[in-house]
Amino acid sequence: MVRTTRFSRNSSKPLFQQLQLITSYGLFQEYPPIWSLPLPPQQPRDTGKPTLVLDIDETLIHTVGMRNEGSDSVSFSFFLRPHAKEFLAEVRELYEVVFWTAGTASYCSAVMDALEVQVLQLPRSFYNIDELRVEARGGISTKNVNFYALSRTQTLQGHNYMKYLPMLGRPLNRVIMVDDNVRSFPLHPRNGVKIEPFLPNERVLSEYARIVTDEVKYGQVGQRQYEGEMAKVIECGEEEVARLQADHALMDLIPMLRSAASSTDLTHELDHWRTDEYTKCDDFRETMNSLSVTRQKILGNVLKERRNVPIPPLKQHVMNHGFMEEANAAMKLEQMRHTPSRL
C-alpha cells in the first residue's frame, strides 16, 4: 500500500514576505567605472573612520534573475540576506563602507540603488537609473553620494578579479574586507574576513513560489491541504525558507567589527580574532595557491569570540616580495586608465 504524504501549511505569510525579494533596475549599456582609484577623500560623514570593504554577491545578496526592460534598461531580481538591513545600518555608523563587486559597473549601480533606496531608505544617488539617464543625455545628475562602489574593471582582472586593497589608497591597517570568496585575501590576509556564502536553493524556492503565488491569487494562503508530490514541494520549500531565515552570518560579525572599529590598528585587533594556525597565511605561496589547505581551510577565518592574546604579527616570507611586486605592477597599469572622479 502506497502511503500518501499530506502537508498543511501553517504560515499565513507568502514566500516573498518571509524572504525579501528585491527588483533593481539599471542601464543595459555597460559604461566605465564611476570612481577613480585611488578613491577620492572620505565623505564628510565618514571623515576619520576606518574603511570596511563589502563584497555584494553571496555576501549581502543572491541574484536570481535578469530581464530586459526595454531598449536601454535591465532589471535584476535578488534575495536580500537576512539581517542585511540591520547589519548595513550599524556598520555605516562605524565605518566608511565601500562596496566592491566583481560584477559589471551597470550591475553594481543597479544593486547599489536598491540597497540605498529600498533597503536603507536613503536619498537616491547617481546609481539610480533615472540619474544615469540624465548623465547619458549630457545633463547634470544629482551630486548626492551615499557610498563609494567599485566593480569588475577596478579589480586585478589578470589575477582572477582580485580586489587588491592597496588600490583604494586607504591605510591598510585601517581597512577590513568581508567577502564570501577568499580570492581577494591572499596578498593582505590579515585584512580579510570570510563569511559563509548566502546560497538559496533556487529550484526549491521557485517550485514553492508557484504554489504560494496561486494561494495568494485565490485568497487561500495557508488554507489548503496538499498530497503527494505537491506536499513534498511545499515541505521542502518551507524547510528552505526556515534555513535561510536562520542565517545570522552578518550579525555574527558585528562584535568583531565593533571591536575593530574602536582600535587605531584594525589588523592588529583582528589578530585577537584568529586561531594560532592563521600565521600560515603569512606565506603568500600558500595563500596564492588555490589548492593549498591554508587557502581553502584557514584564509579569512575569524573566531566568534575575542581572545586575550593576539597571534604573532605578520611575518613576511622571503617569496612574498615577488607576489607583491607583480600585484603592484598590475595596479599601476589599472591606475593609468584614469577615470575622472564624480566629485
UniProtKB/TrEMBL annotation:
PROSITE patterns: FCP1. CDD domains: HAD_FCP1-like (cd07521). The keyword Protein transport applies. Keywords: Mitochondrion, Protein transport, Transit peptide, Translocation, Transport. GO terms for biological process: protein dephosphorylation; protein transport. InterPro entries: FCP1_dom, HAD-like_sf, HAD_sf, TIM50. It is found in: Mitochondrion inner membrane. Gene3D superfamilies: HAD superfamily/HAD-like. Essential component of the TIM23 complex, a complex that mediates the translocation of transit peptide-containing proteins across the mitochondrial inner membrane. Component of the TIM23 complex. This is Mitochondrial import inner membrane translocase subunit TIM50.
